[in-house]
Task: inverse folding
């Protein structure tokens, strides 16, 4: 029987955003099974997910920046438990898990971000059995550009822009959709420019490579950029700061805010001040409900006046190729959806965005007294999900979205520009065209496509599943993304997060390939391999030590002498090597003439004889004439008075210490001390220095 793990694949992605972390579970057929359906051979792997497979917890993971040790049990545990409810037990070891953090984590100090990621990694490894070959690659803070690219993949995957080019022909050979995303801290845009702009700005594009079920690759060239600080929450923070600075100079403590409903009072950090509450001592906001003025005050937040070093630019001086709205049709998710639909719900959810109708509804809502809006919340006028915070934030968010879309990105104001010369109602026209054209309008806010939530996490898993398909041709270029250059760029990112430097037999053997030396250097010293260098150094050290002890006694002595030099002896001055300073550190320095027998080369060095004293060795027997070893070491001056005398260096040399290194037989044949009486035998001495003297 074939187990689940043999014919199905799973993947788990945790989107660690600024306001919370959401876990997604995805499933797809193994390629060996998917190929059995011939109708899907030219399509990308078909991913499946369900609403119940998703779970979100609050607040964002970045709030654990100062307490990273708590992130596991207090934040990740319920998400992992939820994922394990839908991933079969036998599939868990082969199921990759990713935690990819976005703008909230990008704002943390480096040391807090590093500690937090390390604790998340350790928790996954110790508490789960998910596939996690490299924590640095599976648990990371991704750039905004990567987040935008994943979102672009997800949107086009769900809309069918990759698989059915004829059905999604927008003209000029264009069949993909643009993507807009706005979270709490950042905003992203991703689209494939028309042919003219793609050629003009080729260096600004990202090369994306996917692989269909039949193993054939397809390539796309996408422009992606991000605006950090241009998410809804960060834009609101900048807006309030600007209000405070503007009115503080006038000495006002109650600051009028046209982006709040009339008579609503808020602290600067967004806490509602109830009627019975005492007013805070510092500054606070009071709503005026003037939406036209709100639009005017939020426009400067686009920072359109910042110089553009690389024309053309849209927002904050960031370069973006010219957008051809005849072929570039955008879908917007996250705040683009929530702000246009949670309160200002239109006739049906997939209807094209109508600027005129939308702005009219926003002005009507935001012009109400706060007391009226509170009553509508209690009566569930706008649905069960609308609470007080959502209600008072929506006026600012709506004004920010309108400015960002039309004055920032340049989306045509459908409902005004396109209907001024028509006698028909603009909203009615859009409703009719929406039925026929679907997503072919300049902008469409979406939450789900074909009942599946549009999330950049799906784009991540589409890329991963696509990479698991075997290539139809050996040596085919890998799945992933990187700089828009031929072959495999040096910064090419694999779906699992790794970087491809070179693949034998691929087209990366030309100008973009690396030499072996460069590859070794990158492997050992680049930041994507932080744990490899210490291990390599440790291995090299072991290899050097092993080689040293295997090379033989004589060679070891020569190596040691060459490196550390030799100490001074009675007849030779000291020699120095490049590492001779270690002798001083280790106390191995010798003074001239001291006894030092080298056990490696068999040589004997001498102590200064004046530093030694000999005890009284007079004896009537030959055996008693042997030197007492205890007396062969220096004595104090007090003790020296009891000695019979001192020996000459020559006498010590031949009759004293050297006896330890020469055999008695050799001593018997060569010892001549100039003693008047007695002879020397090989078995023992019949005379002593004192007796000789």
Result:
């Amino acid at each position: 029987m074939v187990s689940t793990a043999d014919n199905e694949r799973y993947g788990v992605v945790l989107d660690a955003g600024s306001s919370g972390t959401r876990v997604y579970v995805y499933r797809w057929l193994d390629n060996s099974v998917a190929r059995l359906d011939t109708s899907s051979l030219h399509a990308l792997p078909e991913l499946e997910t369900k609403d119940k497979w998703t779970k979100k917890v609050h607040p964002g993971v970045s709030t654990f920046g100062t307490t990273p040790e708590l992130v596991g049990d207090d934040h990740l545990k319920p998400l992992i438990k939820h994922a394990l409810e839908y991933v079969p037990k036998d599939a868990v070891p082969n199921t990759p898990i990713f935690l990819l953090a976005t703008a909230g984590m990008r704002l943390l100090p480096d040391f807090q971000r590093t500690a937090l990621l390390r604790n998340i990694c350790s928790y996954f490894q110790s508490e789960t059995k998910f596939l996690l070959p490299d924590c640095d690659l599976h648990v990371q803070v991704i750039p905004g550009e990567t987040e935008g690219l994943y979102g672009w993949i997800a949107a086009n995957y769900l809309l069918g822009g990759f698989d059915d080019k004829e059905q999604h022909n927008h003209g000029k050979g264009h069949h993909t959709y643009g993507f807009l995303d706005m979270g709490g801290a950042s905003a992203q845009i991703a689209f494939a420019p028309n042919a003219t702009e793609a050629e003009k700005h080729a260096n600004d594009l990202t090369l994306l490579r996917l692989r269909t079920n039949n193993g054939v690759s397809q390539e796309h060239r996408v422009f992606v950029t991000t605006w950090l600080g241009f998410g809804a929450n960060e834009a609101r923070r900048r807006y309030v700061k600007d209000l405070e600075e503007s009115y503080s100079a006038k000495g006002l403590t109650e600051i009028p805010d046209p982006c709040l409903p009339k008579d609503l009072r808020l602290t600067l950090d967004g806490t509602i001040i109830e009627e019975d509450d005492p007013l805070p001592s510092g500054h606070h906001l009071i709503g005026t409900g003037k939406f036209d003025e709100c639009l005017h005050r939020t426009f400067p937040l686009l920072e359109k006046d910042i110089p553009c070093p690389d024309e053309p630019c849209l927002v904050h001086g960031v370069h973006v190729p010219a957008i051809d709205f005849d072929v570039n049709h955008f879908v917007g998710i996250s705040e683009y959806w929530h702000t246009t639909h949670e309160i200002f719900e239109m006739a049906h959810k997939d209807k094209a965005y109508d600027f005129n109708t939308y702005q009219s509804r926003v002005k009507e809502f935001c012009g109400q007294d706060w007391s009226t809006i509170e009553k509508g919340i209690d009566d569930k006028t706008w649905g069960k999900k609308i609470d007080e915070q959502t209600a008072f934030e929506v006026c600012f968010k709506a004004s920010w979205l309108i400015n960002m879309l039309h004055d920032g990105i340049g989306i045509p104001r459908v409902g005004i520009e396109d209907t001024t010369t028509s006698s028909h109602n603009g909203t009615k026209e859009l409703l009719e065209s929406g039925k026929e054209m679907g997503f072919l309008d300049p902008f469409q806010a979406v939450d789900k496509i074909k009942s599946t939530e549009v999330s950049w996490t799906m784009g991540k898993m589409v890329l991963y599943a696509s990479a698991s398909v075997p290539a139809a041709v050996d040596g085919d270029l890998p799945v992933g993304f990187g700089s828009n250059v031929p072959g495999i760029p040096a910064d090419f990112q694999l779906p699992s997060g790794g970087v491809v430097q070179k693949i034998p037999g691929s087209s990366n053997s030309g100008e973009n390939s690396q030499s072996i030396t460069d590859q070794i250097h990158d492997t050992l010293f680049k930041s994507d391999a932080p744990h490899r260098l210490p291990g390599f150094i440790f291995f090299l050290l072991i290899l050097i030590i092993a080689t040293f002890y295997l090379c033989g006694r004589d060679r070891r002595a020569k190596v040691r002498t060459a490196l550390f030099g030799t100490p001074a002896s009675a007849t030779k001055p000291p020699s120095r090597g490049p590492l001779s300073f270690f002798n001083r550190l280790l106390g191995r320095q010798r003074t001239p003439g001291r006894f030092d027998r080298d056990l490696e080369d068999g040589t004997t060095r001498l102590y200064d004889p004046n530093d030694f004293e000999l005890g009284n060795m007079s004896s009537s027997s030959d055996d008693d004439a042997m030197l007492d070893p205890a007396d062969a070491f220096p004595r104090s001056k007090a003790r020296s008075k009891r000695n019979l005398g001192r020996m000459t260096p020559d006498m010590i040399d031949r009759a004293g210490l050297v006896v330890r290194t020469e055999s008695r037989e050799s001593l018997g044949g060569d010892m001549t001390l100039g003693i008047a009486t007695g002879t020397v035998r090989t078995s023992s001495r019949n005379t002593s220095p004192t007796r000789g003297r």
About this structure: Residues 416-438, 501-531, 590-609, 611-693 have pLDDT under 50 and may be disordered. DSSP finds 24 helices and 21 strands in the chain. The two ends are 104 Å apart (CA to CA).
